[in-house]
Amino acid sequence: MQQYMPEICWHDRKGILSVDFHPLVKDGRYRIATSSMQKEVRIWEFGYVMPRNEHVVAFLANMACHNTSINVVRFAPVATENLLASGDSEGRIVIWSLSDQPPAPTPDDDMPVNKENWVRQRVLNHEEDVSALVWSPDGKMLASVGHDCNLLVHEVSTGKRTICLRNLRNFPNGITWDPRGKYLITLSKDRKMDILDCVKGTKLKSIAMAELPARSIGGLHAEAKPYRLWHDDQLASFQRGLQFSPCGELIVCPAAQLEVGTQDVFGVWIFKRTEIDKEKPFALLPTEKATFVVRMCPVIFKLVDGEKQNYSGLPYRIIWVALTVSQIYFFDSQHMQAIGYIDNIHYNSLTDASWSSDGQQLVVSSLEGYNSFFRLTMSEWGEVLADEQRPPPPPSPQLIKVRKRKVKTKEEAGGDEERSSETDNALSHAMTQGTPKHETPKTPKTPKAKRPAIASTPTSTPKLTKFFPRPQEKTAENNEAGAAQPEPQVITIGDEQTENSASTAAKDDDSSVQFIEVRRQRRVELTTIEP
């Protein structure tokens, strides 16, 4: 393995936040995209010049569309699409596409002329910082998580939002897409890993703690008890980049932390796809410091001959790297210890890493503004396994339990038939003989309470002759009768009250006078009651 660090100003000596390889390798030339605390995304090309194998980097394009620092850049996995996604600290995601038209002249005289024309195709939005992006295996969908606690999935060609899962977690900052197109897995700052259906967005599993057996790790004895699996929010990193293996059989997660007594054990957790329903990892690979990024090599190797060790049980070998703030670990699926280790290659913290599609190049970025390139010789790492030699993958576990209908035995089925026949016979008898009347028990009547005695009433009961006034004909007799009609009086029915007593009561009681006046204003005529 050879290491190169070109001393060029990738982003005017600003810290580089993300780097990614283009999937197409042409004539030994590789293209990468970088982003930094500046507002631009830049495309570069590098290769090796014989006979000294000099590492040569060339500038291709500078794309300006963002208004703030760009946290992540990711190329689409399909080489023919030539698509790039970039997410910034304002929640904006820009989809770039390579155009056949010649590039326009750059407005900045200090920048070199663009050799490729990358145009803005579409803009997608989060409400806050975009922390992680991932493309679907076919390059048609783009999933993103951000500081707004949302998970969004968009169809790139139309911009249609197919999944919008709000309030997923507190600051999810890692996401990976299943190579088989079934799951989306996120890792968040609140120490939880969520497994979701990538089609419907349904949350299938959430893993935060696990019951682990007693083990001795690095001279520390871990008791058999439930443990929290992930590092807390004090992890000094903006992302927690977990990733599926190229075959989809393993899920390797950074930010592993075990609190053993007063000591902390760091490393990476490994989950098996076939055992993901158990909600616990099957292996821990310890590291000296906390890890925050895992990147899988896209090439699959054969098992090393002559070695019995194979803790994963896979019939082939997978290689990946795990980053801490200053270290690079190389792991594989066959050996329990690291197969490679690199330390102190940059003065500032490491930020991101990416593999080329042929597995021969690895690039690591840092906050000091430089990239480190590692050239790998495939024969030194093992023999490559051809695609046709890969065994068929096992089926995925059923993460959502479906309730099955209980199959009845013959005895239960016979009992049901007897009960149904009895019910049919009763119905037929009721239809032929008539339904018997059901007599309800009668409730006894309660004796009526006797009313209190009423005071003696006068022998002559008053008789009400007129209640509603009727219109009278305008005749001379009526006019004479109306002139001789006495003043209307209020008389209580059932009481003997003379004319003098009624008039006296009306004079003493002001309310009766007012009442009479109101009745007069309403044009209601009160007539006398004849005894």
What's the number of helices?
A: 5
Work out the strand percent.
35-45%
Q: How many β-strand runs?
A: 32
Q: What is the gyration radius calculated from CA atoms? A: 45 Å
SSE diagram, text form:
Layout: E1 2-4, E2 16-21, E3 30-36, E4 40-49, E5 54-64, E6 70-75, E7 83-88, E8 92-99, E9 117-125, E10 130-135, E11 141-146, E12 151-155, E13 161-165, E14 172-177, E15 183-188, E16 193-197, E17 203-207, E18 209-212, E19 215-217, E20 220-222, E21 225-228, E22 243-244, E23 250-260, E24 263-272, E25 283-287, E26 293-296, E27 319-323, E28 327-332, E29 340-343, E30 350-355, E31 361-366, E32 371-375, H1 378-381, H2 410-433, H3 476-483, H4 499-508, H5 510-521
Antiparallel strand pairs: 1-32, 2-3, 3-4, 4-5, 6-7, 7-8, 8-9, 10-11, 11-12, 12-13, 14-15, 15-16, 16-17, 18-21, 19-20, 22-23, 23-24, 24-25, 26-27, 27-28, 28-29, 30-31, 31-32
Helix pairs in contact: 4-5
Description:
The chain has 531 residues and is mostly beta strands. It has helices at 378-381, 410-433, 476-483, 499-508, 510-521; strands at 2-4, 16-21, 30-36, 40-49, 54-64, 70-75, 83-88, 92-99, 117-125, 130-135, 141-146, 151-155, 161-165, 172-177, 183-188, 193-197, 203-207, 209-212, 215-217, 220-222, 225-228, 243-244, 250-260, 263-272, 283-287, 293-296, 319-323, 327-332, 340-343, 350-355, 361-366, 371-375. The chain has a four-stranded antiparallel β-sheet with strand order 1-32-31-30, with no helix packed on it. A four-stranded antiparallel β-sheet has the order 2-3-4-5, with no helix packed on it. A hairpin with a 3-residue loop joins β27 (319-323) and β28 (327-332). α4 (499-508) crosses α5. Mean pLDDT is 81; it is low at 464-468 and 473-522. Residues 1-379 form the CAF1B/HIR1 beta-propeller domain. Residues 423-434 have a biased composition (Polar residues). Belongs to the WD repeat HIR1 family. WD repeats lie at residues 63-106, 123-164. Pfam families: Beta-prop_CAF1B_HIR1.
